[in-house]
Specification:
The protein is mostly helical and 446 residues long. The protein contains 19 helices and no strands.
Length: 446
């Protein structure tokens, strides 16, 4: 009887955590990419979505699992292969970009520009941002309750409105998808999925799940791993269904000239208005508000948890969260375009080495020489710097000529070369430290 109760509690917690992870990963930035992809690929939307799924949903899911897949069972076990200090610096820069640098401010700016401003043009942006971040702070200040708040309250609202819009578009499609001349759907899907940068957030979201698991009384390695894997699966399935539906909605307007020249955000607004008439803007505003609020809550919580653990308790969760939200409020008032333009190059540089480290984490128990993953990540970092900055001359030409460079993946071959180089460098003597966000202890790792 006790085992049955424990199993039911584990399943209920897994579902709640899965819904919370879905909502935290499903931000407004992701909301606008699938319809744009569908519009640009037309009748090839399903193939385009496959590329998007691999580079967005698949990579984000792998990033979450990589934290429990490595030997240390921690974030440090993923990024620490570049070196202890280098790994921490990398994570801090990623958190600052994903947190107060770009993603959290972008949630408020996006909600205002795509929804609130259309419904209430008289409201200044700073007033809305103050309300938005006030609500974020109120919901995120208790770290063990963050997942429950998102999973049990906010996600059902987000899913209900999102599903209604998609079903409406399927039952009463605006038009039929048409073939798009010169379109390469898999190429467009990979590029759009790559631009969402979900893989960066995936590693960090595991911290939120670990904290939630502990809050529910789950600390055993096997239970926590089951919870995270189950939540990750639920989130991936929901993201795939929603993104697939949105991609199809975009494909249904691929043959309509009025939709042809629209950018991502205006395109989604136009599709929603076409499907729902005068209620379209209201529905879209609710979707964007829920998507952005859940993402802001999740990322704020992650930042608070990481800095508290990385500083060994010197930086407390609540002051960190308050600081992150205060900076995010200030940044949000610079506007969406400015926020994206400033942070995008930094994220573009950091993304490739993190992908390498995430992939290598799944082979961590087989490939025990950390030099292999570390060198592969450094080579990918070097190539991504050249690719992002666009250096002229020989180096720039070499990277531009790399296989898959046209997909923004020119760093893959350098990463492979780096891994080979690392294999010839003597490995360090293995050391086990229970690092930030560790899921299990040294004894449990055996």
């Amino acid at each position: 009887m006790e085992n049955k109760k424990s199993g039911n509690r584990l399943r209920a917690t897994t579902i709640s955590m899965g819904l919370a992870l879905f909502a935290a990963q499903f931000g407004a930035g992701n909301l606008i990419f699938p319809p744009f992809l569908g519009r640009n690929t037309g009748s090839g939307w399903l193939i385009g979505f496959l590329g998007f799924f691999i580079m967005d949903v698949g990579l984000a899911a792998a990033a979450v699992l990589s934290v429990v897949a490595n030997r240390k069972g921690s974030i440090d076990g993923v990024v620490g292969k570049m070196g202890n200090k280098a790994g921490k610096i990398m994570m801090i820069v990623i958190i600052l970009c994903l947190g107060p640098g770009v993603c959290i401010p972008r949630t408020a700016a996006t909600t205002y520009e795509m929804g609130i401003h259309l419904l209430m043009p008289w409201m200044p942006q700073w007033v809305f941002s103050a309300i938005f971040f006030g609500a974020t702070l109120a919901l995120v200040i208790r770290p063990t309750k963050v997942v429950d708040i998102i999973g049990n309250v906010l996600t059902p609202i987000l899913l209900a409105v999102m599903v209604f819009l998609i079903i409406l578009g399927i039952v009463h499609p605006i038009s039929s998808p048409v073939a798009i001349p010169d379109s390469v759907p898999i190429h467009d899907g990979i590029l759009n999925g790559y631009q969402t940068l979900d893989g960066l957030g995936g590693v960090l979201m595991t911290l939120m799940l670990i904290t939630a698991a502990a809050g529910h009384g789950f600390t055993d390695k096997k239970d926590v791993t089951k919870l995270i894997a189950g939540a990750d699966t639920i989130s991936a399935v929901l993201l795939a269904l929603v993104y697939g539906g949105l991609t199809y909605l975009g494909a249904t307007v691929s043959g309509i000239k009025a939709f042809a020249g629209l950018e991502q955000a205006p395109l989604l607004i136009a599709i929603t208005n076409k499907l729902m008439g005068g209620y379209g803007v209201i529905a879209l505003t609710v979707i964007i508000l829920m998507a952005c609020l859940t993402t802001a809550i999740g990322l704020s919580s992650v930042a608070g948890n990481y800095f508290e653990e990385a500083s060994e308790g010197k930086l407390k969760y609540k002051p960190v969260v308050i600081t992150v939200i205060a900076v995010s409020f200030a940044m949000s008032n610079f506007g969406l375009s400015t926020i994206i333009s400033v942070a995008a190059p930094i994220l573009g540089i950091l993304y490739p080495p993190l992908i390498v480290l995430v992939v290598m984490a799944f082979f961590d128990r087989k490939i025990t020489n950390d030099r292999i993953a570390g060198c592969a990540a450094y080579f990918a970092l070097f190539a991504s710097i050249i690719e992002t900055v666009g250096l002229p001359g020989t180096l720039g030409s070499i990277v531009a000529a790399m296989p898959l460079a046209e997909y923004g993946l020119g760093w893959i071959l350098p990463a492979v070369v780096g891994g080979v180089v690392g294999a010839f460098i003597p490995a360090k003597k293995p050391e086990f430290n229970v690092a930030e966000g560790a899921v299990f202890t040294e004894a449990e790792a055996e």
